[in-house]
Design a protein that fits this description.
Layout (H helix, E strand, L loop, with lengths): L5 H16 L4 H19 L18 H13 L7 H20 L26 H9 L6 H16 L3 H5 L13 E5 L5 E5 L2 H13 L1 H5 L19 H15 L7 H14 L4 H8 L4 H4 L1 H17 L5
Antiparallel strand pairs: 1-2
Helix pairs in contact: 1-2, 2-4, 5-10, 6-8, 6-11, 11-14
GO cellular component, one term: cytoplasm
GO molecular function: DNA binding; tyrosine-based site-specific recombinase activity
Main location: cytoplasm
């Protein structure tokens, strides 16, 4: 069994810190582990573009090393990373070096001033209200599978939830009988209460009464809200397949995923006049800047409508 180096020990300490003290989700911690694996492997390799020989002491890392690492990610011969992926890895590395400084393991935060590559503006892909209506109509039916699919898709669009938030719901998280809402657990185990509209409430109620008991009897007892045909909790992959099948039945030719419904939820709310900070709370975004990208989508829609409708717009 290989002996852990000082770098390995520091990485493990940081991952415990973000998992326990900051309460980050397991998937986020796993992503941090992969990012730092790239970083520490690069530090320890005998590579041509290194400003110095391989590094085993984190106190020897300089700003030049961080910059060279960022360049390496985009230029490496095998699987060069996109600008967005490089920015994510650099964010992890910067957090790691802040931790090292706070713990007194290094004397300076050498990663603080390193800038990520500029990202191309990527607008969220939403579908129209008419397409959403067709998608939801494609789940109509009285069998247990269609009742479940209808409830799942209606709830995704009604709440703008991430697919992981919906498939992780338990029956007790559904508060429609009292508050007409649902309790979602987002990133970092942060909980929020999101209202549920009448269509989703009806679909979920029908599913709970007519379909879930049948599905539950096929497997072991579980608190999960949405169950597969064998009685187990529906997975994210299952949810993706359910939506893709509904999109095909609805004749929607553009790609549709669970996140499409989240984007559509935000875009349609803002187009309908909702305040961006309200949408931020509903989506569970920690920063309003993340939500404001949707305002660009609605601005494009308004511009198109103006150009089409105004007699002197063209």
């Amino acid at each position: 069994m290989p002996i852990a180096t000082a770098v390995d020990v520091a990485v493990d300490s940081y991952l415990r810190h973000v998992a326990v003290e900051r309460g980050l989700a397991a998937n986020t911690v796993a992503a941090y582990r992969r990012d730092l694996g790239l970083y520490t492997a690069w530090l320890g390799a005998d590579f041509v573009e290194s400003p110095s020989r391989p590094i085993t002491d984190l106190r020897a890392v300089t700003r030049q090393h961080i910059s060279a690492f960022v360049q390496h990610l985009g230029l490496r011969a095998e699987f060069p990373l996109t600008a967005a992926s490089i920015a994510r890895v650099l964010s992890t590395v910067r957090g790691f070096h802040r931790f090292l400084l706070d713990e007194g393991l290094v004397e300076a935060d050498v990663a603080h001033d390193t800038k990520p590559p500029k990202l191309a503006l990527r607008l969220p892909k939403a579908i129209s209200i008419e397409q959403v209506t067709a998608l939801l109509a494609a789940t109509d039916g009285d069998d247990v599978q269609r009742l479940r699919d209808k409830a799942l898709l209606e709830l995704l669009y009604a709440t703008g939830a991430r697919v992981s938030e919906v498939v992780n719901l338990n029956v007790d998280d559904v508060l429609v009988e009292v508050f007409d809402s649902v309790r979602l657990t987002g990133k970092g185990d942060k909980q929020r209460i999101v209202p549920v509209g009448s269509f989703a409430r009806t679909a979920v109620s029908d599913y709970l009464v007519r379909a879930r008991p049948v599905l539950s009897a096929r497997g072991r007892s579980t608190p999960a809200l949405f169950l597969g045909l064998r009685g187990h909790r529906v997975s994210r992959q299952n949810a993706w397949l359910i939506i893709r099948a509904a999109a095909e039945r609805a004749g929607i030719t553009v790609p549709v995923s669970p996140h499409t419904l989240r984007h559509s939820f935000a875009t349609h709310l803002l187009a309908g006049g909702a305040d961006v900070r309200v949408v931020q709370e509903l989506l569970g975004h920690s920063s309003v800047a993340t939500t404001q990208i949707y305002t660009l989508v609605t601005a494009d829609t308004l511009r198109d409508m103006y150009t089409t409708a105004h007699p002197r717009a063209r």
